[in-house]
Write a sequence for this structure.
């Protein structure tokens, strides 16, 4: 995610993106200076010894990890105290997740080993969770304190079908791995916008893509899932085989089984597509940019090869409030020109950064890389597109962020992400999905406010400020009749319970499907993103 991976999102922000690498690179001198500072800070942080106490490990989990170690290769099981264990922890984007200490990490090579690990953990009454890319900002989303964390680092196959209609990917891939593998074949899939974000979490929560305005969210471009059930049974799930589960997996998260392969619809990809990355001083160009965003949200989206990703942020190093627009178009453009859908952005004629041209999609995902190691907080909301409301939301966010601008290593951002009628139409394919938006016929605006910071002493103030943003924006949009209940799961805070926003009928249907495929509720009582009745079970 622009900040989707500030978020993100994918935004992941997903989704907090480091401005040193992607958000503020305009004068080359600034680009180099910021990158150097970022790398220096990363090195400094990495050199600090960990002072985290060893976790409490129950006898059940100690036994389960010992069984894994005696059953599989020693290199597949990393326990507390070994160097590989620290490497496993460092994969997480958020410091909150990184600091969690499982009893062991298990690295399966295939679906059968995944099935064996899940059955073992359940039989021994040991908490477990699976992790793809580790981009969840909060603890318990892809970590299991004192339990078993199953990481897919050894499952990274990317395979193209003989007829080039499908691309099969395993969940250990990050999106850059997938795109780079497909580049020589001039093919692509609908996936994440940031290189390092994991594939599985994004696909199970929705998946906003640069190509979504044409093809829909990533989850609506999945032809088949290979699923390991908690019983150990391995099944295929698609529109004709287990169609109830196919509907549920499109937005329902990891509540039904463990996905060990996604078969994605494949699309022909030109070697280059057009990208414009524009950064401006938002105190000067707020109105210009918001006008452009709302114009695209109401009419510009008709060019279904166009996409926008919009973020406002505060750059602490320079004391600047900036705005970055990542504009993309599936067709290359003549040198020095831009697609007409983006005319509004070019009314802001003084930029801090203006990088445009025809590039490979993999290059853009690398531009939007974000470093691990910060404390992360993300909230989301959905509203009707309205120019005055958008301006007022930006002002609320700034009011709450301003008292924190001197906090250590802080990076706050606010994203506006229009979701178009083309996206909702794609949700009707193959029996629809579970998020409850498929009957929508006009654009919605997904909001995402995210923040990264370094000092634990600032936790309470940051949490309180962003809770106030959420409350104030909710009350304002409701008062104006512009609030929409939907919460995008990949950007949601643990308090937001996104699945409840899919509609009561859909939620009850999801609960019924969960009981069918996981009758004893194993996945509901273990960690792992959002559960059907709220956030994951808390630990520690």
């Amino acid at each position: 995610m622009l900040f989707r991976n500030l978020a993100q999102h994918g935004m992941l922000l997903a989704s907090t993106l480091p401005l040193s690498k992607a958000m503020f690179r305009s004068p080359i001198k600034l680009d180099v200076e910021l990158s150097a500072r970022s790398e220096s800070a990363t090195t400094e942080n990495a050199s600090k010894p960990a002072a985290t106490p060893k976790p409490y490990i129950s006898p059940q989990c100690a036994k389960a990890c010992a069984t894994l170690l005696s059953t599989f290769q020693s290199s597949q099981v990393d326990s507390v105290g070994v160097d590989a264990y620290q490497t496993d922890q460092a994969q997480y984007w958020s410091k909150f997740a990184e600091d969690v200490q499982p009893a062991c990490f298990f690295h399966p090579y295939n679906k059968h080993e995944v099935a064996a690990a899940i059955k073992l953990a359940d039989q021994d009454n040991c908490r477990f969770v699976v992790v793809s890319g580790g981009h969840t900002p909060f603890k318990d989303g892809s970590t299991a304190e004192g339990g078993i964390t199953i990481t897919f680092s050894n499952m990274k196959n990317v395979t193209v079908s003989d007829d080039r209609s499908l691309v099969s990917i395993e969940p250990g891939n990050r999106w850059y791995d997938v795109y780079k593998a497909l580049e020589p074949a001039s093919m692509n899939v609908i996936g994440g916008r940031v290189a390092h974000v994991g594939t599985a979490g994004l696909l199970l929560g929705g998946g906003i893509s640069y190509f979504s305005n044409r093809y829909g969210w990533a989850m609506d471009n999945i032809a088949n899932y290979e699923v390991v059930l908690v019983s150990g049974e391995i099944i295929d799930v698609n529109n004709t085989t287990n169609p109830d589960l196919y509907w549920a997996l499109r937005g329902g998260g990891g509540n039904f089984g463990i996905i060990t392969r996604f078969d994605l619809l494949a699309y022909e990809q030109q070697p280059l597509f057009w990208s414009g990355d524009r950064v401006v001083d938002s105190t000067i160009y707020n109105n210009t940019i918001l006008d452009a965003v709302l114009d695209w949200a109401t009419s510009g989206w008709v060019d279904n090869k166009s996409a926008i990703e919009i973020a406002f942020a505060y750059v602490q190093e320079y004391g600047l409030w900036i705005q970055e627009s990542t504009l993309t178009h599936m067709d290359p453009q003549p040198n020095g020109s831009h697609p007409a859908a983006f005319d509004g952005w070019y009314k802001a004629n003084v930029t801090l950064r203006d990088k445009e041209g025809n590039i490979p999609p993999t290059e853009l995902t690398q531009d939007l890389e974000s470093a691990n190691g910060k404390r992360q907080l993300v909230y989301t909301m959905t509203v009707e597109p309205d120019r005055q409301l958008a301006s007022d939301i930006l002002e609320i966010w700034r009011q709450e962020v301003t008292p924190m601008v001197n906090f250590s290593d802080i990076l706050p951002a606010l994203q506006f992400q229009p979701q178009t009628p083309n996206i909702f139409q794609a949700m009707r394919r193959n029996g629809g999905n579970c998020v409850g938006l498929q009957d929508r016929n006009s654009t919605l605006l997904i909001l995402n406010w995210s923040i990264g910071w370094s000092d634990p002493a600032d936790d309470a103030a940051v949490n309180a400020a962003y809770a106030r943003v959420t409350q104030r924006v909710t009350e304002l949009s409701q008062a104006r009749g512009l609030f929409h209940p939907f919460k995008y799961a990949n950007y949601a805070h643990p308090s937001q319970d996104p699945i409840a926003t899919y509609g009561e009928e859909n939620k009850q249907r999801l609960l019924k499907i969960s009981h069918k495929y996981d009758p004893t509720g194993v996945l509901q009582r273990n960690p792992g993103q959002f559960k059907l009745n709220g956030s994951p079970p808390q630990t520690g």
Residues 1-50 have pLDDT under 50 and may be disordered. The CA atoms of residues 20 and 38 lie 6 Å apart. The domain at 59-151 is CATH 3.30.43.10 (Uridine Diphospho-n-acetylenolpyruvylglucosamine Reductase; domain 2). The longest helix spans residues 459-479.
